[in-house]
Amino acid sequence: MSAARKDSIKILIADDHEIVRQGLKTILSEHSDLEVIAEAENGNEVLKIIQKTKLDLVLLDFDMPEKNGLDTLIELKNMKPNLPVIILSIFPEDHYGTRFLKAGASGYLGKASASERLVEAVRKVAGGGKYISPELTDKLVTDLTNDSEKPAHEVLTDREFQVFRGLASGKKIKEIANELCLSINTISTYRSRILQKLNFTSNAELIRYAIEMGLVS
Q1: What gap in Å lies between CA 9 and CA 25, rounded to an integer?
Q2: H-assigned helices in 35-92
Q3: Largest Cα–Cα distance of the chain, in whole Å?
Q4: Confidence of residue 149 (pLDDT cuts 50, 70, 90)
Q5: Which of 33, 97, 114, 171 counts the most CB atoms within 10 A of its CB?
């Protein structure tokens, strides 16, 4: 952690891959008003850092070990409701952006477009705005004008969606339970509820759907 420059936008980068963190730092370091003063490899580190460090913005990876991006975002906003967060993800904005914005994120940026849009997004969000890409704007407009065409998985609650992603990634119920700090019975109940909501009868159908929709890598 470095000493912060006066009047710069102070940023925490959270990503479990060092090469990604270094790439983001390189992009941001080219601008004198932007300064990375802290880094984290997982969600638990993020929550510890924000309690003891004065920050203006958090760049938060979608998928991290120990605590995923959605759980981290929800806890972070409970602790520091006014701290802006931009979600970084390998998945395009129109896949997950809406869900994270509803959970309190100020922006969602696909990593594929980060090199071109990162600086613009950071400045806008740090200034109190929201960063919504053209792709996400199109999706939000579509959702508002034609609610019936929403993808089936968008009816899931945040917790159901987390379990859905675990199942879609081929994880066992016990693995998901450990990750989310819930009982096996609770995860099994969520699984049943998810299958019912999506009108599936097996994990295989759920996995096939997730692959077709581009929801898992």
Answers
A1: 13
A2: 43-52, 69-79
A3: 57
A4: low
A5: 97
Interatomic CA distance for residues 17 and 185, integer angstroms: 33
What is the rounded distance in angstroms from the CA atom of residue 90 to the CA atom of residue 103?
19
Residue 104: left if φ>0, alpha if ψ -120 to 50, beta else—which one? Answer: left
Confidence of residue 145 (pLDDT cuts 50, 70, 90): low
> Per-residue pLDDT tens for 37-87?
999 999 999 999 999 999 999 999 988 877 888 889 999 999 999 999 999
Under CATH, which architecture does the 151-212 domain have? Orthogonal Bundle (1.10)
Instruction: Say what the pLDDT of residue 77 is.
Output: 94
Length of the chain: 217
Q: Cα 141 vs. chain centroid, distance in angstroms?
A: 21
* Mean pLDDT, range 16-39, rounded to an integer: 94
User: What residue has token string 């638990």?
Assistant: 44
CATH tag for 9-142 (out of 3.40.50.300, 3.40.50.2300, 3.40.640.10, 1.10.10.60): 3.40.50.2300
Burial label, 104 (beta-carbon count in 10 A; 0-12, 13-18, 19+): middle
Relative to beta strand 57-61, strand 107-110 is: unpaired
Contact indicator for 96, 108 with CB cutoff of 8 Å: yes
